[in-house]
Amino acid sequence: MDKKQTNNHLAPSGINGVRQDRRNFIVRSGIAATxxxxxxxxxxxxxxxxxxxxASTGIIKAVLNALTxxxxxxxxxFMLPGNDGHSFSQGEYYxxxxxxxxxxxxxxxxxxxxxxxxxxxxxxxxxLGAIADAFDDVVGPLPAGVAxxxxxxxxxxxxxxxxxIAKLLSQNExxxxxHVFSLLLNVxxxxxxxxxxxxxxxxxxxxxxxxxxxxxxxxxxELPDILANIASKLTGEMDEKISGxxxxxxxxxxxxxxxxxxxxxxxxxxxxxxxIARPYGxxxxxxxxxxxxxxxxxxxxYYQGRTSVDA
Amino acid sequence: xxDVIVIGAGGxxxxxxxELAQRGLNVLMLEAGAxxxxxxxxxxxxxxxxxxxxxxxKRWGPSDRTKQNWSRELPKPASILNVSGIGGTTxxxxxxxxxxxxxxxxxxxxxxxxxxxxxxxxxxSYEELRPYYEWVETTLPVQTAAMGSSEQTFFTGCENIGMSxxxxxxxxxxxxxxxxxxxxxxxxxxxxxxxxxxxEYPNATGCTFCGHCQQGCYQPRLAPRNxxxxxxxxxxxxxxxxxxxxxxxNGQAVSIETDAYVTQIHTxxxxxxxxxxxxxxxxxxxGETFYEEAEVVVMAAGCVExxxxxxxxxxxNTNDWVGRGLTDHxxxxxxxxxxxxxxxxxxxxxxxxxxxxxKGCIEPATMGPAFMAGTMMFSDSGxxxxxxxxxxxxxxxxxxxxxxxxxDLRNLLEDVNNTLTxxxxxxxxxxxxxxxxxxxxxxxEHGAIARVDMNKRDRTQRxxxxxxxxANKAAEILRAAGATEVIRVDAVPILxxxxxxxxxxxxxxxxxxxxxxEARSVKKLFVADNSALANxxxxxxxxxxxxxxxxxxxxxxxxxxxxxxxxxxxxTPLSSIxxxxxxxxxxxxx
Lengths: 311, 590
What we know:
The structure holds 2 protein chains of 2 kinds. By secondary structure, chain A is mainly α.
């Protein structure tokens, strides 16, 4: 495909060789906060070697896993609030009813995203960096002073990450779709409310319920602009694949968040094809009140007594 | 060399296969997905296990559920509900078998004729198709649906707004009725108990009202495969096809290859004409490829895959209509919440309907909470009360259309059996811009993947008006039945009822197939699924008409290329639940 030139995503610019947009992405996506939460010991060490270690594959995986799970937990609470921390954070909750998170639907979503569609083999941190650049163009610069909201530990992490940002975003490691989309949700969340704070590590999960809705509005209404930006920074083939995946993810996020909690996913034993407990989603909907059945006593008769009709 | 190769074992392919096998032809049917030989052991009625689009048994993907499903390119928000495997998407259909609106056929002279889309009518008359309807209605068989709570709720609503009752198979005017559906009527304990043992065959026969049409029908348990309640082709025509040598005097059993994805149709030039010669397919498990020749090739891979296969095979597309004219009934959902039991997750998927000639149809649907909640997210109107994407339609429903999320969703679904979902099936127009093509950038192991462009917001004014009329009517029916809350989803394109992407027609400039469903540009190549339909039928569910047309196509093939005679209208059709078929199914160990 002769469509676009590949950008050199790793070309240094900005202060100390770190691109400002990458710096923004680190803050916006919640990576900084998550590193502080997931690997505080590492983050506290100031040696250069430790900072390198911070950017190593294992740590990044742990960071991204934690961040992704927290992000999708925020989505599930948005869909079906309950008496969990994420629901309280968003200001839409029940005191005495569990919500969608009681079904581990955040894990359902991560699994779903990571197996639904094949990520391109060559989607690595490098390509993710390009996406980060594209989103930064759409989202715009962080308001001055937002970085000051980071706690001291997060600020320390930021400093370390900036020094090794290129390594973080150029790991030669396959990146699952769930990570990509959770990062994008968080970047958008930082646009909707860059000042959001709270107990959650994901910027999306820190938003109020209405602010979360605003994130989905942006994805639905501005997706063409986002995709066009991504297209300008990736080669033709990669652009098509990434664009397709993001388009899919934007559409499927709410579907998965609604489907998963009401299903039996959490308590299904696939080996024996049976339930190991009653699904909480069935309680939420009063579905199968006495457990699975092979039929119902629902037969009333035939309308007006007619059992057949002519041509 | 085979007499006939049929590509696809969904709603249409098995009809051609069975009919020609009954005549003694050597038929090979190739199916990309799973064999589904023993649903009682392989399937469950759980929603995630069945309907998860990633890994459920009812997905578009290879038989090995640990492998990823097959993807399509969708440039705009949309969803495609296709199922691979023997039975195709009929594995999760409701069995609804209405005839088409007579007004969409050539020669229609009713007073409302001008209100139909006359540019894309069928190339023959309704009367021409009638005997083929009757043949299929006996074979499946099609019966008048029994009534449960959801149907009773719907009928009450229709009665209360003063609608007429229809008591014929032919649609004659605005009216409501029980479905004529391919679901065996309940017998014995069926519909009368929840006791598992009492619901086993033969203590129960026919539909047990289990509420799991979408998860695949294997009720009643222990029944021979051809006596399962819902007559998806895996339970009806395929068992007949596999045993044709046992119940037909001159029959020859159909050979079936599953996990067999056809990637190429081969042609040759004979007397200056391009003629189908054979096919290449790839085994999804081993990766091996196979080639086999046939006298006639029949495409029945579906509205999305047929154009893909045609284009990837490099077959001629001289008028540029391959893949164009896709219709989808501009599907929509209107959901009601009731203060009483509606059986919203019980019984047959849909056993009642209302028809509005020149506009479309409405039918109540029952479904589990996961499928219901997930499907309601496919809205084009944003999140209700938060944003509307420039739509947020108002009408006889409550508030703006849109997704229902958060506490509103919890409240709506707090008892799924106090809800009722109405499906809107629009009489939508054939439009060239709605099309299936192939991706310019993305391939899978079977070639360039299909790309589907469905411009929901830019449909013809007639289509848009019809959809609004039906959504309002559905809301009126729900309210008249006592609903206390009515929500309209305003769905994005949901490609469940898909038609006419390889359409037949009388005008060579806008049709791929002639009046016999043979490709205009490739002889001995026929199409026998929904994609062959000339239009969206005026809104009725497409499967029965596809099956009637496929029967007619089988007859044309037999007459034109095998020197045979017509049988419809001459012979008496054999029901797929006849004892001779049951005995054959048991003998063969199906």
